[in-house]
Design brief:
- The protein is of the alpha+beta class.
- The protein is built from five helices and six strands; from the N terminus they run ββαββββαααα.
- It is globular.
- It binds adenosine-5'-triphosphate (ATP).
- Required for chromosome condensation and partitioning.
C-alpha cells in the first residue's frame, strides 16, 4: 500500500481545506515550530482510525476540530481523507490493485463517521484495511516526535506488537477474536438444539 495524498479541512490548525501530495521519496516534514508538522502526522493516524484523543494531544476526540482563534470562529466539523494505492499482496478480503479514498469526519456532538470510496463503513473496517497492509494508526512507520525514544524504551510485548504490525499480521488478531465469538455463539446454539432434540425424544 502506498499513501498518495492527504486532504484535510477543519482539522486542528488546518482550518482551510489543504492537500498534501505524498510523492515517492518523501520521508519527513520540516518547518518552523508550531506550523503544523505534527498535526499532519496526527491527521494520517486519525483517518486510519486512531481512537485515543490522548495520543492526538487532546482531551476528547472533538479537540481535533479547529477550535477558533482571535480572528476566526471555530468549525463544527473536521474531515480528513487519505488516497491510497493498493497493491496485490496487501492482504485482506479486498486483495486487489487500485486506488481507494478513506475518509473520516467528525461533527461536534455527533462523533466520527468513516467512508471508503464514498461508502459508509465502520472504524473496524478501516483499521483492518490498514492492518492487512502492514500499517495503521500505530504503525512504527509514522515517526512522530519522541517516538524514537519510545521504541528504544519499549517493553518486549510492545516490541512484539510493532513487529506484528510491520509484518501485516495484526489484523489477524481482530479476525481471530471475531471468529472465536462466532464459534462460541454456534456452540451455544448447538447445545440448545441438542437440549430441544432431547426434550422431543
Ligand atoms: P513543533 O515543531 O513545535 O513540534 P509543529 O510544527 O509540529 O510544532 P503542531 O504541533 O503540529 O506544530 O501544531 C501546533 C499548532 O496547532 C499550535 O499553534 C496549536 O494552537 C494548533 N492547534 C492544535 N489543535 C488545534 C485546534 N483544535 N484548533 C486550532 N488550532 C490548533
Amino acid at each position: 500500500m502506498r499513501i498518495r495524498r492527504l486532504k484535510l479541512g477543519g482539522f486542528k490548525s488546518f482550518v482551510e481545506p489543504a492537500e498534501l501530495r505524498i510523492e515517492p521519496g518523501l520521508t519527513g516534514v520540516v518547518g518552523p515550530n508550531g506550523c503544523g508538522k505534527s498535526n499532519l502526522l496526527e491527521a494520517i493516524r486519525w483517518v486510519m482510525g486512531e481512537g485515543s484523543p490522548k495520543s492526538l494531544r487532546g482531551g476528547g476526540m472533538e479537540d481535533v476540530i479547529f477550535a477558533g482563534t482571535a480572528t476566526r470562529p471555530p468549525r463544527d466539523f473536521a474531515e480528513v481523507s487519505l488516497l491510497i494505492e493498493r497493491q496485490a499482496g496487501d492482504g485482506g478480503d479486498e486483495d486487489a490493485d487500485g486506488e481507494s479514498e478513506v475518509t473520516r469526519r467528525i461533527e461536534r456532538g455527533a462523533g466520527s463517521a468513516y467512508r471508503i470510496d464514498g461508502r459508509d463503513v465502520r472504524q473496524k473496517d478501516v483499521a483492518l484495511l490498514f492492518a492487512d497492509a502492514a500499517t495503521g494508526a500505530h504503525s512504527p512507520a509514522l515517526v512522530s516526535q519522541g517516538r524514537i525514544g519510545a521504541v528504544i524504551a519499549a517493553k518486549p510485548v510492545e516490541r512484539r506488537q510493532m513487529l506484528e504490525e510491520a509484518a501485516g499480521i495484526s489484523g489477524l488478531h481482530a479476525r481471530r477474536k471475531d471468529a472465536e465469538q462466532k464459534l462460541r455463539a454456534t456452540e451455544t446454539n448447538l447445545t440448545r438444539l441438542n437440549e430441544l432434540l432431547g426434550d422431543q425424544e
